[in-house]
Amino acid sequence: MIPCAYLKYTYLTAGLFYHLDVVNFLLLVALLVGAVAQAGCFSFNYSSFTEEDETNLILKNSYIALGGIQVTPDVSSIDFSRNQSGRALYKRPFRLWSKSKGMASFNSTFVLNIINTTNPGGDGLAFILTGHTDLPSNSQGQWLGIVNEATVSSPEIETVAVAFLTGRSNTEI
């Protein structure tokens, strides 16, 4: 089953039906029903986050605050905020890749509000698709909580990431 983030509705005008005979119409309906049944679409939308949303999320070293998700600890203590990473995942698993069709499909839109209150700020943020809910040890900094130095080239990672870098990584300093 391949998930999709939205289902596009299409309709046929009466004029088109006027030119189709019954056999062609039934064939068209059967194809459309089969295509929708195989798609297995689901979607979710969070315009802001509330404590009730925690039932749908897996929060690792992160929490919901002020309508958003704080993915690292509060920076009120400089020592505490260094070398930290967090993770917020959608709890319901889904299959992204279809081995039989050899393809994957998803659509995502998100808005980020990144405010650096320390100098230098953090390394960044990543949107990930992963089958691993645990936050890898030593994955802070340039690894953005996705992998660590030992696992970065491992084929078992099975993770897709889109990274938003907000500062210079350790290798650029």
UniProtKB/TrEMBL annotation:
Record-annotated membrane-spanning stretches: 16-37
Chain ranges of the Legume lectin domain: 42-169
UniProt cross-references to SUPFAM superfamilies, sorted A to Z: Concanavalin A-like lectins/glucanases
UniProtKB keywords: Kinase, Lectin, Membrane, Receptor, Transferase, Transmembrane, Transmembrane helix
Entry's Gene Ontology molecular function annotations: carbohydrate binding; kinase activity
A Pfam family hit: Lectin_legB
Family: Belongs to the leguminous lectin family.
Entry protein name: Putative L-type lectin-domain containing receptor kinase S.5
Lineage: Eukaryota, Viridiplantae, Streptophyta, Embryophyta, Tracheophyta
Name of the gene this protein is made from: LECRKS5_23
